[in-house]
Design brief:
It is a single chain. The chain is mainly beta. About 0% of the residues lie in helices and about 40% in strands. The protein is built from no helices and 16 strands. Strands 1, 2, 4, 9, 10, 12, 13, 14, 15 and 16 form a 10-stranded antiparallel beta sheet that branches. The chain has a 6-stranded antiparallel beta sheet with strand order 3-11-5-6-7-8, with no helix packed on it. A hairpin with an 8-residue loop joins strand 6 and strand 7. The radius of gyration is 16 Å and the shape is globular.
């Protein structure tokens, strides 16, 4: 899900695009001032390596403005949250190491494994916390992301996070081409996917 302009790199000269980031359960990004809305479509490609938080704006289990994903191996796991409801999020252990190109829209999920895609009705809401990549919330107690994100992490029209390295100091992060902002890891350090 890399958005390019004119076929070249969408990044300023000071940044070098990379294929993606590997996370080892000890890293996440908080995307300041980006609170997901019920009207948002989120797109990303991931290779999971375990049950873990993936991304989101999560407050608590009873909140009516969650938009987040936790994947689990449990048979009936439903930890894809949209508004106040939960939807299927089971990734069996035999899906680990596979790449999934996932799109979550205001009316359903696409690209999840084993026919677990769900549908729902669009709701008008705005999350109360900033979006995180690699966890569902800055204070989440469940496991942070274990796996790799490949290519851009996109919220249509609002965020186009290109994985890159800042040349001046080799810091890895997401450069948002929508706002022209470079986001460093909030906690931990990912590694570059070769």
């Amino acid at each position: 899900y890399t958005t390019m302009n004119g076929g070249g790199s969408p990044l300023p000269e000071e940044y070098e695009q990379v294929k993606g980031f590997a996370f080892d359960g000890d890293c996440y990004f908080s995307i300041t001032d980006l609170k997901l809305k019920g009207s948002d479509t989120v797109r990303f490609s991931m290779i999971p390596n375990g049950a873990c938080n993936v991304f989101g704006c999560y407050t608590n289990t009873t909140a009516g403005n969650n938009y987040s994903l936790y994947i689990s191996t449990s048979t009936n796991s439903k930890y894809l949250r949209y508004n106040g409801s939960t939807y299927k999020s089971r990734f069996t252990t035999d899906t680990y190491g596979e790449q999934f190109d996932i799109t979550i829209t205001p009316t359903g999920s696409h690209g999840m494994p084993d026919e677990i895609d769900d549908t729902w009705d669009e709701v008008d809401f705005t999350a109360s916390v900033d979006m995180c990549i690699g966890t569902t919330a800055t204070n989440a107690s469940s496991a942070k992301f274990n796996g790799s994100f490949i290519g851009a992490f996109v919220v249509d029209g609002r965020f186009n996070g290109i994985p890159c390295k800042r040349k001046a100091d080799d810091v890895l992060g997401y450069y948002d081409t929508v706002t022209g902002t470079f986001f460093e890891p909030t906690i931990g350090t990912p590694t570059v996917v070769e």
